[in-house]
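TL;DR need structure tokens for one chain.
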Amino acid sequence: MLFNSLLFLFFFLIVTSAYYLLPHKLRWIWLLAASCYFYMYFKPVYILIIFFTIAVDYVAGLLIEQATGWHRKLWLLLSLATNIGVLAFYKYFNFLAHNINLLAGHWHGPQLPLLNIILPIGLSFHTFQAMSYTIEVYRGNYKAERHLGLYALYVMFYPQMVAGPIERPQHILPQLHKRHYFNQQTFITGIFLMCVGLFKKVVIADRLGLYVDPVFNNPHAHSAADLLIGTYLFAFQIYCDFSGYSDIAVGAALTLGIELMKNFNQPYTALNVSAFWQRWHISLSTWFRDYVYIPLGGNRKALMRTCLNLLVVFLISGLWHGANWKYLVWGGIHGCLLIAYQLMKRLGIRIEIPRMIKWLLTFNLICLAWVFFRANSVHEAFYIIHQICTLANLHYTARGIMQPAELYYCALIIIALVVSEHYLSGYAQFSKAKLITASLLLFVGCYFLGVFNEAQFIYFQF
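>> reply
TL;DR here they are.
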């Protein structure tokens, strides 16, 4: 079920209304049932995968808490192996098989069969959330959850189970135990955030997608100018698409009295790549920091070890985004940029340049890296970058896709986004009247300016 669909509007109204009408002891059952329905709308049978991992991790959490010595680590490893094994099979089996077959083909070796596997929606997200639970129990940061239903709801809570934010048990589970009363201010704030997210998705992201998708799907038919425009537009398309989803998720949860973590914080205002990753997909970057980077040694080791840790983390992050070499390259680029930043910082190299230049350099490096993320292959990504860097053809040739007047409109809504985000970031201090007015304006804007083709959110495929 897509957040930008009429069906979700009815779903949200029914679920939220019934939630407050039901007694507290029945609410978790209602939310769990609603979350199951929400997920099963995509492909019903795949809910069995989630039930399987929920059962394994629930039992593992109890065993980890009860065990001592090496047995604790054994139960943790079995839990992690189960989760990673499920993720690896559905997401990476064909990728590995295809590449092994390519290598085997050089020596006329046997070929591995490619399976007809459809990636379960949101698998990467709820798998990481499930793993955070057993890791936190193992570390002693959270006691094992005794209530199987509430643990299942922690994994399957419908606003964020498909594309995050990726939460921690100590933040969400206590809220699921808590009795929630209807709070008008909180409810209106949640509706406001949902309107912000919907506006980002249907008015900005899907509008930009009308240009970005045709250009990137056939780059050889377009000029350097077309490709350069497409690169910049994609940067804002993916931001509005993903942060829009997060805003809707946070808002929908807030209407139920449950607070999710903030997942984006104006990332394109960052003055260096390190700051960008402190502002972009915060729940994932902190997940990798806490569960991969720091256990590897973080920046506590020698300089070269720190650089290696950064590269490993971002290569894994790239692979997390998709079973394709282009994502590995994208992750590797960000890893190398962060290594360069870390080397300059450790060696005390300071380049005194204006803040505007720092911002322009950072933003353009991020945009160039996005080319690998969006292109259909690594080969096409290099072609696009070569065309842009050599300024092969600066004539606008994509009039059949979007007229110049429409491009000016896209530029206008991007400028409006950048200007308004700073103001809207202070929404917690808004009065009820201001929140209601802003919500109505955003909703009307969605109705008149939105692209309602029910385009899937980009991160659903991860």
